[in-house]
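Lab notebook, page 48
Experiment: co-folding of the full assembly
Goal: obtain a model of how the components sit together before planning crosslinking
Operator: M.T.
Materials (sequences as entered):
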Amino acid sequence: MVDIPTSAGDVIPPAEVADVELYHPKSWWTKYVFSQDAKVIAIQYSLTAFAIGFVALVLSWLIRLQLGFPGYFSFIDADHYYQFITMHGMIMVIYLLTALFLGGFGNYLIPLMVGARDMVFPYANMLSYWLYLLAVIVLVAGFFAPGGPTGAGWTLYPPQALTSGTPGGRDWGIILMLSSLIIFIIGFTMGGLNYVVTVLQGRARGMTLMRMPLTVWGIFTATVMALLAFPALFVAAVMMLFDRLLGTSFFMPAIVEMGEQLPSDGGSPILFQHLFWFFGHPEVYIVALPAFGIVSDLISTHARKNIFGYRMMVWAIVIIGALSFVVWAHHMYVSGMNPNFGFFFATTTLIIAVPTAIKVYNWVLTLWRGDIHLTLPMLFAIAFIVTFVNGGLTGLFLGNVVVDVPLSDTMFVVAHFHMVMGVAPIMVVFGAIYHWYPKITGRMLDEVLGRIHFWVTFVGAYAIFFPMHYVGLVGVPRRYFELGDTVFIPPSVHTLSMFISVAALVVGAAQMVFLFNLVWSLFHGREAGGNPWRATTLEWQTPETPPAHGNWGKDLPIVYRWAYDYSVPGAPEDFIPQNQPPMVGLSRAPA
Amino acid sequence: MTVILVFLAGVAAIIIWWLSGQRLMSKPWAEIGTLDDIQGAARPPIPVAKFGLGIFLAVVGALFSLLASAYLSRMSGSDWWAIPIPRLLWANTAMLIGSCAALQWAVVEARRGADEGVRLGLDVALATTVLFLAGQIVAWLQLVAAGYLLVDNPANSFFYMLTGLHGLHIVGGLAVLARTRVRSRGAGTATSARLRLGIELCATYWHFMLVVWLLLFALFTGLANDFVDLCRQLVS
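Observation: model returned without errors.
Model output:
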């Protein structure tokens, strides 16, 4: 294959994609606060997500203090403990990871990577952020409401979520939680429409779908899934609000509570579980697919090598997205459902391992004989692969009905999902921030602080979650406030719990180093220049760094090649940007 | 969860059809951008707003499919007593059909560039839609007066919730329609591409919400249940 320059290549008119009419801010308020610029919205999303994520981090400390040292901290009682685990889970999954990957990275990267000036519906995009902020405020309001936030567990299963034994069940907690989710979903839908339509309609000339960086593929597919899956949570939340506020019996069965017959009758808690997990399982991949996409780009860029099996990577993303809609009931093996369903869902669950394994092999094969630079993004990317494989393998255990039944609701499950959808995506989040921070701010993050952050986080995460598998295997249940004198639990479990708790405190503290680095480097970081990683994708080719309003100068970029032209034999440099016109006499056959 | 799975299968079919035209088999690493390769210009010139509405309707479709799934699932409970259908709902249905027809007519008139026809069509659509909403509220009041309260029975709960959510969607559409009507004042406006697009978007949304309403109506009257039973028999 030869890079053939054509004379026609030189006369392509700059922009055949109609230039969008940009909204131009007229005041400081519309420029930095009520901004319609996707980049500003992305930063607003990210900072809000970080802020609420910090709350969830502190909650995880409190959870671990109780689990590692039961009885030492008198201010944590059982009710508080349940409120902590509930809010920790919900915040981390939805208000941090979903919002950060789609609202944060999606907003920043989609327009830049596909060569657009902005999102296609900037006004809806702005509303999306403000609704997200409102959802966060309503969520946080739970902490200050009478009775505190809900303590129903992040799955909010009825009937216990609505009964008086559960913190917030008959108070404001559950109402605020459900309202916050409804607001979040409405806000997300506005943003999601933007991400999808921008990818479909806003791409620069020459940017075919198969030339898009995998980051865009990941975020795009995850957004499509989220648009179709979030309505299930919306429906569940609306129906549950009806049950709680108006006294209907959608989910609430006949219950005698403290000797008193509740008015509800005949409702189906299983129906809620179906609706919740119809959202809940795709949600795992809504978080994972952007991570898959981003990590592919990090690995390729920092190993100076094209991604192995690009087409297969794209197909795998799409297939994983589709399959994730038909596996939801593997979260419900112990709900008493028909065993034949269990067989069906176990099969579909295990089939997902195929495209997922393809992706893992392709990442590893991209590293194979690559010119690996152990930069911070690369370190986090490798940490992601390792962690994801680890969490994925225990997923194979839990996907099988007979193995899941005894392990269900033990710490093994907690360890599994924290590895696969907690630690692994967070590794990518960090890697991505170290990677794109220079583009966003024009300065590099500090290397030494970054390495401290990486090693403590990576080793620490294993110190937390690896022992947790063993704790789960001996039968320690999840969500228990304290274990007391339980016969089958050996004393070593308590020692291990203490160890895990100390590790959790240390890992949490390492995140303070990261936050400090973010702020410090903003003022004192090394000047980055436009393309510090010598990357090919369009966001690094902007005329200004950080990119100005409208991203590109007068003309939109034209895309001549895919996103992975690294180390092309004979090329003057080891990367060829996507908007680089064909070069004379460049042979692309492998040497 | 059958309804939502059927709906998603439909969405998946559309996605697969669309992806099949995206050269997923191409080898991007071997294609350097000569003029022929550049696909951007070949993209169909669909306005982004239409695209956006289409995707939004997919989301709304998923929402109501999930509600229908929940309805059919909850229906098997022993405490389910179907709610009587007020005769007024038939009149409301006719109103909604009328507003869809009026909007479609406005689209045709807008394409012809006839100002008067556009304004008349939009006015009729606005009036019939408001009548539909008012009729729905009267139907609620009739049911409440007859003693069918929200909390008495899951069938009642679903009826009020589903009609309410559908009504809210219509109210949202009504706001956009009213804005479009305001924009259509003044001579020669019908020829403006922006207004024509607005009317087309309203018409699409109304048609979609009509289909949703007809399916919900079929659920309430039990027609859908007969159909579901038939399907179950065929499958088993």
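Interpretation: Residues 329 and 341 of chain A are 8 Å apart (CA to CA).
Next step: discuss with group before ordering constructs.
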